[in-house]
Amino acid sequence: MSEPVLYDAQGPRARRRTLIGTVVGVLLLALLVFLVVRRLDDRGQFSMEKWGPLIDPSNEAFDAVWRLIREGIVNTIRAALIAMVLSVVLGTLIAVARLSLGRAGRIPLIGLVELFRGLPVVVLVYFGVRVLDDVGVDLRGLPGGQELWGLVIGLTAYNMVIFAEVVRAGVESLPRGQREGALATGLTNGQTMRIVLLPQAFRVMLPAIISQLVVVLKDTSLVTFVANYDELLSQGESIQRNLDNPIQTFVVIALIYIAINYTLGRIAQFIQARQARSGRVSRTTTTAATATAGPAHVGGGA
After folding, report:
1. Which tens digits make up the pLDDT trace of 2-37?
2. Which pTM was predicted?
3. Contact assessment for residue 264 and residue 167, using Cβ atoms and an 8 Å cutoff
4. Of the candidates 280, 261, 252, which has an alpha carbon nearest to the alpha carbon of residue 70?
5. Are 59 and 53 in contact (CB under 8 A)?
6. HSE on the CB side for 221, CA within 13 Å?
């Protein structure tokens, strides 16, 4: 039997048209790239005067540029890590409360989730950095100052409700017998959630959680439009203003973001693949143990 397909197989004429369209599209794209590169070359965008401070260690500005970039990376990762930890902790608490409370008790939490999930992240960052200061919430005494903690508060407010929904979906995806079996052994609702359900939910949803952490890290750049916090994008803005090389600077900044986020994405894929292997090994071991114990049990009963 032939394998099922989601569309009709193309005939010779359709395949020929598809090939012609693909070739024409590739040629047009190559022509566009050529025109862009030629235009940039005519404007001197490939000269070492523009690229030297970023790629040439002998350039007099190289050390200062990369010192600013390293500082930006550290500040970006610091803000992202704090926001990630707070988002996961608070999101887990919101998810547990929403799963544990009755219908009336869940209404305020549902309203909180829908409110923060419906607001743009940059608005929450603005509230954290600007509005809190205007209403008298002074965070300057904390390490990192108002800008760092305002950014963290804005990112946490948005991402904690996302994590709450992720954790809630993970718990609800578990078989109903997990909760019933735990309660039957004498565990309380709180112990059942903490010991049985949450660990399994985190294992199931861990790839989604790590993927959301990538979003948290990227969203740290939004503070550039609100306050003067020296994260990676803000440092790039400072560098290009002094060197007048925005294309070159932001290409390097983009590559750094891609490298960091690609690493997090690969970690998520590795964890997901490892979980899949562990699940297969567990099922195989259980099946083998059952098959081995079965005859012995029958013999003993005889």
Report:
1. 555 556 677 888 888 989 999 999 999 999 999 999
2. 0.77
3. no
4. 252
5. yes
6. 15
Task: State how far the Cα of 148 lies from the Cα of 1, in Å rounded to an integer.
Answer: 62
Whole-number pLDDT of residue 269: 79
DSSP secondary structure letter of residue 222:
G
Domains of the chain and any CATH numbers: 55-274 (1.10.3720.10)
Note the pLDDT tens digit of each residue in 240-299.
Answer: 999 889 999 999 999 999 999 888 888 877 877 776 776 665 555 445 444 544 544 444
CB under 8 A, 24+ apart: contacts of 81-86: 82/148, 82/152, 83/151, 83/152, 83/155, 83/156, 83/159, 83/216, 83/220, 84/159, 84/213, 84/216, 86/152, 86/156, 86/160
d(CA 291, CA 296): 9
